[in-house]
């Protein structure tokens, strides 16, 4: 990772692809103008990393906004994801083509398996490896995989995933999973770094924010970056999109980071019922 951190900082993945450490998430961003505006505002603010997924049903709007921005495609890192119902090998290849068509692009920077669905996750990973070998996505990985799921992949495939994207915040630190990823050279990527707003009033976070003249949201995002994670806070509000990116003009002290680390309470905001017993 470049040092000091800036909005243009990247991290080098295990296949030497440079991934921006900061981006815009689009989970639950409504189709149409809402998503297009959010992506355009983010790009205008200097974001160069946009995260979407087939199940979000806004890939078409993400692609349209990127084209409308006038920024060369090569300068923007785009992530999308393979949904659960399409994880059989041939279905996964078709799903990739469909995502590519909706985005209006001829390649994807990062393609992720969205959830570790039994019994197809091995097929899904085999399909992603094929797409990567064809050069149709620059790098591949997964989302919401636990240590058990990652061990399965590593035991059966010579290709190590580049990224594991999962929920992380000071209230959900998932230390064992983070450590495992780091040991295996898998980049950790945090979604829901703001715990979907549920913890912005936490007294400890508010106190740290006050010391730095920043908002609670900015402190939570800065914590994530200083831990070495890629982070994709989501917003469709222009002011908040700008606020979320205004985290590169201050640093948390080591004492701040330690205090925030101590807030862990395994607080999850995403609990998919279809994965009962399979994602823990």
Describe the structure.
The protein has 280 residues and is of the alpha/beta class. It has one domain (10-270): NADP-dependent oxidoreductase domain (TIM Barrel, Alpha-Beta Barrel). The protein is 39% helix and 15% strand. The protein is built from ten helices and ten strands. It has helices at 33-44, 59-69, 89-103, 121-133, 147-156, 175-184, 203-212, 216-226, 238-245, 254-261, and strands at 10-12, 18-20, 24-25, 49-51, 77-82, 108-113, 137-143, 163-167, 187-191, 230-231. The chain is globular, with a radius of gyration of 18 Å. Mean pLDDT is 95; it is low at 273-280.
Give descriptors for this structure.
single chain, about 280 residues, alpha/beta, TIM Barrel, eight-stranded parallel sheet, two-stranded antiparallel sheet, 10 helices, about 15% strand, disordered C terminus
Which SSEs are present, and which pair or pack?
Elements: E1 10-12, E2 18-20, E3 24-25, H1 33-44, E4 49-51, H2 59-69, E5 77-82, H3 89-103, E6 108-113, H4 121-133, E7 137-143, H5 147-156, E8 163-167, H6 175-184, E9 187-191, H7 203-212, H8 216-226, E10 230-231, H9 238-245, H10 254-261
Parallel strand pairs: 3-4, 4-5, 5-6, 6-7, 7-8, 8-9, 9-10
Antiparallel strand pairs: 1-2
Helix pairs in contact: 1-2, 2-3, 3-4, 7-8
Largest sheet: 8 strands, parallel
- Give the number of domains: 1
Secondary-structure element sequence? Answer: EEEHEHEHEHEHEHEHHEHH
Helix content: 25-40%
Strand order of the largest sheet: 3-4-5-6-7-8-9-10
Average per-residue pLDDT, rounded, comes to 95
Query: So, the CATH homologous superfamily?
Result: NADP-dependent oxidoreductase domain
CATH topology: TIM Barrel
Q: Assign the structural class, choosing from mainly alpha, mainly beta, alpha/beta, alpha+beta, or little secondary structure.
A: alpha/beta
Measured on Cα atoms, how large is the radius of gyration?
18 Å
CATH architecture annotation: Alpha-Beta Barrel
Helical stretch tally: 10
The number of distinct β-strands equals: 10
């Amino acid at each position: 990772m470049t040092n000091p951190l800036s909005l243009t900082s990247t991290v080098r993945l295990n296949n030497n692809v440079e991934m921006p450490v900061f981006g815009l998430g689009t989970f639950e961003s409504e189709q149409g103008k809402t998503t297009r505006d959010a992506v355009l505002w983010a790009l205008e603010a200097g974001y160069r990393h946009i995260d979407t997924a087939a199940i979000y049903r806004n890939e078409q709007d993400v692609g349209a906004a990127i084209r409308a921005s006038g920024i060369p495609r090569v300068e923007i890192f785009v992530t999308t994801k393979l949904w659960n119902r399409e994880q059989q090998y041939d279905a996964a290849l078709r799903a990739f083509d469909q995502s590519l068509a909706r985005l209006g692009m001829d390649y994807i920077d990062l393609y992720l398996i969205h959830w570790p669905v039994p019994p197809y996750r091995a097929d899904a990973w085999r399909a992603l490896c094929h797409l990567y070998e064809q050069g149709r996505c620059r790098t591949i990985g997964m989302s919401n995989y636990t240590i058990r799921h990652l061990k399965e992949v590593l035991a059966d495939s010579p290709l190590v995933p580049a990224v594991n994207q999962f929920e992380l915040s000071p209230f959900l630190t998932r230390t064992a999973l983070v450590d495992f990823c780091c040991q295996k050279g898998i980049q950790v990527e945090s979604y829901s770094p703001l715990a979907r707003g549920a913890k912005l009033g936490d007294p400890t976070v508010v106190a740290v924010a006050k010391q730095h003249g920043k908002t609670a949201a900015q402190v939570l995002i800065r914590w994530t970056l200083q831990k070495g994670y890629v982070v994709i806070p989501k917003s469709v509000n222009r002011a908040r999109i700008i606020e979320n990116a205004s985290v590169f003009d201050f640093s948390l002290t080591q004492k701040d980071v330690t205090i925030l680390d101590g807030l862990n309470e395994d607080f999850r905001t995403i609990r998919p019922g279809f994965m009962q017993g399979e994602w823990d």
